[in-house]
Structure formats: C-alpha cells, structure tokens
C-alpha cells in the first residue's frame, strides 16, 4: 500500500484515495465485487489489473448505450454452443437462479462499466451471489468466479444492459507457424479494439524460470562433496553444509522459460499477431480452441484461438506491428520491470 501511496504523490496522479479492505472474505474474485460495491464513484469503469486500454477509455461514459441502460458488459470467448464452463440451455444455473435460459455469449468481467446509482439493487444481488456462504456456485462448478455474476443479477431483475456485440479477438505470438493466443482482446461499441486483457501470460517484471527442487539438489551436492572428501567417513551432510550448497545454487539464476528478449526487458513479447472474428458471420462459427503448443511454447502455457492460423476461414489475422497500438506492449513490459525493481529496492532497504 505504501508503494502505491508514494507513487500517487511522486507522479502527480491527482486526488487518489486508498481505502482499507476490512472484510476478510473479500479475497480472490470477491475483492473485485467488494471494490465495486463499496466504490466512492457513482459511475465507474472497472478494469482487472492485467487489462490495458489501447486508448483513453473515458469516452465510454458518453456512449448512448451506457446512458440508456447504465451498464455495459463485454462478451467472453464462450457461448452456449462452445463453452468450457458448461453454461448452456441444460445448465442447472438457470433453475437455481430461477431465470430463463439466456441464449447469448457468456460475460467476461475483466472490464465493467456500471452506473452504481441506477443499479444499486442489481449490485446487491451481485454481492449476494459472490459472498453467499454456501458457495454453491463453486462447489457445483456452475459459475467461474465473478465473470457471469453481473449479467445474472441484471437478468434476474429484468434490468437492461448493453452487451458489446463484437466477440473477443485473440492476441498472441507465432513461433514456427504455431500460434498461441495469450490475451483476450475486447472492442468498443463500433468494433474497434479497446482493451487487451493479458490474462494467460501476466506481466511480472522478472524473468519466468523453470521450477526446480533446489533443496533436493543442495542435499545431493552436499552428499557428493562429503563422499569425495572423506570416502569412508560420515555419509549424511550436516544442515549447515546443505544450507551452504542451497545458497550457492540460489545465487545462480535458473534457466528461463522463454528466450531473453533483445530489448532486455524480462517479460516475453507475446503480442505479435491479432486473430479476429469476421463480421457478419454466424455465432455458431465462433469457436475458440484451448490447447498446448509444445514444443514452440512452454508446456505450462495455456493457449487460446487456433494453433494453425488460417485453418478457420471465419477468422482473419493481422500483425500487431501494423496496428496503432504496436508499441504498447514494450511500454508495459518496461513499466513492469520498473515496478519489480522498485519492489526489490523496498525489500532490500533497511
């Protein structure tokens, strides 16, 4: 918190206030619901921390659709004909909430535009859904986090909202003709790219390294060193001997999961191509695949879209280098590195 307060003062970010969260239940996705419910703003645009606008998004407050309804939502990759969350006509969620099946795209809540005064009653429902103690949504795997809670609350009360009618595009990277989509791309009401939600490969400001069991390796090294020095003597290393080996191992950074970038920033470049759904194409043809693109990409990396670009004729591909926001990722990666360095300085200071 102190780091954020210092940044607000130093960088001249205006009148920004910070409010402590005292509800110990407000963790994970519930923190978002808590923040929106308790916001000091009447009208708000909420963005997930890994979601970045490609231009100033304040024009959204002047949209006719927002003025008419007081709520603008964005679609997810998934719809009743293709859903990894099993939200379709036969889902139990409709019976549980006592609302009719809504034949529409699922909601992606990485960005939310809400008039809190106009929709105070709906937000009460959202809060109830998120904080209900039985946690039946999660136990029965009916809803994933908060992502559909907002549209469910609006549907429950028969309240109007505007769902952006352009399905998400996918931003990702191509290696050896293998595409891995790692960012959900959302549009404005005219179909222009507005938000890049980097939710499958988050910025950290430090290089991602392969997991390794350093303690096991330290024990192995200490044991081998002991046997080499005194073959007929003690076979089990002492704790301080293992700790010395562990310290030596941790002093040398492990192998990075991605090849280092030429600009020296730790986070990988993942926005090289944009895959978008062709307009005037039936929703049934909007199919986002989930897959692993090993060996071109790490086995731990979840990919979205289509591995072989051009395989689905209902989508088209653009190079990010040709788009207006081509330099955005470099700036974000630099900011992430600076933030990580500031954090390390704070941790290292006496």
TrEMBL record:
Bilayer topology term? Single-pass membrane protein; Single-pass type II membrane protein
Main localization of the protein described in the UniProt heading:
membrane
* Stored Pfam families: Mannosyl_trans3 (PF11051)
Localization per Swiss-Prot or TrEMBL: Endomembrane system; Golgi apparatus membrane; Membrane
- Output the SUPFAM superfamilies linked to this UniProt entry: Nucleotide-diphospho-sugar transferases
The record's GO CC annotations read: Golgi membrane
Recorded hits in InterPro entries, A to Z, give: Alpha_mannosyltransferase, Nucleotide-diphossugar_trans
Which family does the record claim for this protein? Belongs to the MNN1/MNT family.
Q: What is this protein called?
A: Nucleotide-diphospho-sugar transferase domain-containing protein
Give the source species: Phytophthora rubi
């Amino acid at each position: 918190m102190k780091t954020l307060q210092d940044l607000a003062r130093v960088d001249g970010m205006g009148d920004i206030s910070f409010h402590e969260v005292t509800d110990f239940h407000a963790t994970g996705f519930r923190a978002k619901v808590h923040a929106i419910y308790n916001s000091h703003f009447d009208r708000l645009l909420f963005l997930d921390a890994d979601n970045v606008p490609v231009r100033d998004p304040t024009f959204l407050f002047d949209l006719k659709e927002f003025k008419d309804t007081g709520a603008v939502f964005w679609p997810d990759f998934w719809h009743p004909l293709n859903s990894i969350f099993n939200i379709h006509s036969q889902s139990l969620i409709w019976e549980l909430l006592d609302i009719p099946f809504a034949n529409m795209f699922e909601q992606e809540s990485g960005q939310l535009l809400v008039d809190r005064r106009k929709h105070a009653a709906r937000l009460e429902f959202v809060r109830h859904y998120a904080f209900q103690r039985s946690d039946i949504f999660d136990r029965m795997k009916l809803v994933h986090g908060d992502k559909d809670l907002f549209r469910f609350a609006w549907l429950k009360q028969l309240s109007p909202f505007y769902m952006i009618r352009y399905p998400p595009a996918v931003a990702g990277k191509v290696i050896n003709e293998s595409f891995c989509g790692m960012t959900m791309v959302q549009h404005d009401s005219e179909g222009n790219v507005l938000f890049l939600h980097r939710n499958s490969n988050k910025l950290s400001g430090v290089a991602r390294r392969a997991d390794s069991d350093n303690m096991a390796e330290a024990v192995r090294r200490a044991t081998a060193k002991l046997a080499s020095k005194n073959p007929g003597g003690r076979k089990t290393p002492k704790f301080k001997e293992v700790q010395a080996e562990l310290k030596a191992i941790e002093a040398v950074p492990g192998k990075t999961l991605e090849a280092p970038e030429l600009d020296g920033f730790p986070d990988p470049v993942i926005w090289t191509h944009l895959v978008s759904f062709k307009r005037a194409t039936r929703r049934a043809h909007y199919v986002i695949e989930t897959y692993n693109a090993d060996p071109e990409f790490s086995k731990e990396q979840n990919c979205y879209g289509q591995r072989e670009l051009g395989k689905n004729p209902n989508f088209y591909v653009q190079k990010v280098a040709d788009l207006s926001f081509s330099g955005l990722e470099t700036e974000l990666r630099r900011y992430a590195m600076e933030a990580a360095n500031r954090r390390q300085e704070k941790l290292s200071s006496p």
